[in-house]
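Researcher: Here's the sequence for the chain we discussed earlier.
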Amino acid sequence: YQRRVRDSCCTSRLSSLFFVLIFIMKQYFLFSFYLHLLFLNVIMVHSNPELKEAAESGHPEAIFQLGEAYELGKEGFERNLTAAFIHYNSSAAHGHAGAQRNLGFLLLLKEFGYPKTRPLSLLHFTFAAVGKDLIASQVLGYKYFSGKGVPKACEKAAQHYKFLAGKIVEELKRTGILTIHEATKLPDAHDATRDKSSDEEDVVNFYRYSANSGDVNALNTMATFYLQGSYGLTQDFEKAFSFFSKAAELNDPTGISHLGFMYAKGYGVKQDNATALKYFRKAAEQDNLHALNHLGYMYLYGYGVDQNFKTALEYLKKSAEKGYPEAQMHIGTMHYHGWGVKADQSLALQYFQLAAHQGNLIAVYNLASMQLAGLATKASCTSAVALFKKLVEKGPMAKHFQEVQKLFNQGDGEGALMIYSKLAEMGFETAQINAAWLLEKNFVQPAPIDRLERSLRYFMAAADQGNADAQLKVGDLYYYGRGVATNYEKAAAYYTLAHEGNSAQATFNLGYMHEHGLGLPSDLFLAKRYYDQTVDLSPEAYLAVIFALNKLLVHFIFDKLQVTSINLLMGEGLSDLGLGVDLGYDVHNALLVVLSTALIIALGWRTGHLRFLQNNIHPNPPNQPVQNQN
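Model: Thanks. This is the structure I predict for it:
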């Protein structure tokens, strides 16, 4: 007992000492930094006098906004990370969570001492998360889940991700709308002949033209675009209501049911449950799944009618049996709580799985919560956090991808990199790819001092999340020694991961490495297998694979001849030549390549020979007299 007390005291002292050391390190860093600024004679605020005045009065939010203005180069200020750091630190001293978070991001840059400042960065993110900063919570959730900069701790990751996912689900239940913001991968967009915004504009113009022609599907589609604020359109409930009304006038059940939804939520019209029920019933008469689901929902919670679980279940079953995910989610909720039915968590889990498989985010949240708690299924923190993470990354934070895309299109590579880097630290795989690509292709001027190191870091982060393109890229970086020491074994490991993700290029590379024994055992049979799989994954690689296979055949024969020569020198016979071993090569393809190569050589020789004859037999142009050489 005394030993345990003594150990507990020692642990407590070590913990206290740790926090004291962190505090001293922070103060030393800030002192050194301010001393550095004193010598640099950094010029402070030049623009936006109102913001400057509010900041000088000591208002934490104004100081924070001034820091953002410097960091992002807005409000008339030139981008200045040093000045941004000063203002964030001043605001953070007053307890501003956003300033704490942005300090955490800046301390992940080499200009501010990274990687030595990694612990201090984590400390700022932690303070910000305690202050309910959602971005900081997402950063910490990803770090603890992936083990980036901290030891892996799934339980801590679950706390952060479940908190964030809960916020999104609450908003989704309140509004009934969640706009999914698709993130564009810059490497794909840069190689495309048209940019995504042009494609979206063409789609909208097509549906608008069709809607004006009275096409009900187009009317409903345009209404949905305005309802969600998608495809480059600003959210506009009145326009959405107008398009749904036109579809309803044509007795279209989808338009009628969505008019009911607009009345139920008060979007573009005064909220009215009685009118909503009227439209839902009218559409339900035509077996519209959306209407059946919402009628069930109204009876389930007693909106505009007396609460009636039995009636709710009848409507919901009609919709769920035909695969409507929201109805499946509601039935799962009824079985989970025992509303109108016997409580059955196993059945609830089955309904949540059906709905989650079709992308219903509330069902995803419920399924993850059950997996985390081990309800009706084996507890799995990793699976639960993966689901929470997937849900969170479909939430409002994803809207930043549209903002940063605009910066990139305007030629602001530095601004784009800054935001992509933050999204990358939050665990967005696409942002990790984009930030790495911007650094690799040197789109940022002046280039960061750790350009190649950061590029590799982001590519590796995306690779660890299973992105096959990133795994291929990291393999290339290790193979060619770009930004890192050449390491064929690590290159082969990443190529193998990319191969498992069906990357044709990685599969070909594994064949090549097996053929030449680079980072992998030399094995011509395995090399051939990988070359064959390359064509299966990408038929466009057929010609390259044919040449590789025939080169491999030559390699095989050459190796056998070498063995035979050694055997002859040692007095052994020809019996070990082994040319009869079947490698499975297509003889016709081999013959075709050999003949084609011979033809190319012959044509080249013939062309060169003709030029030689022309230069020697007809040294002078036609019809020109030969000059007297005497």
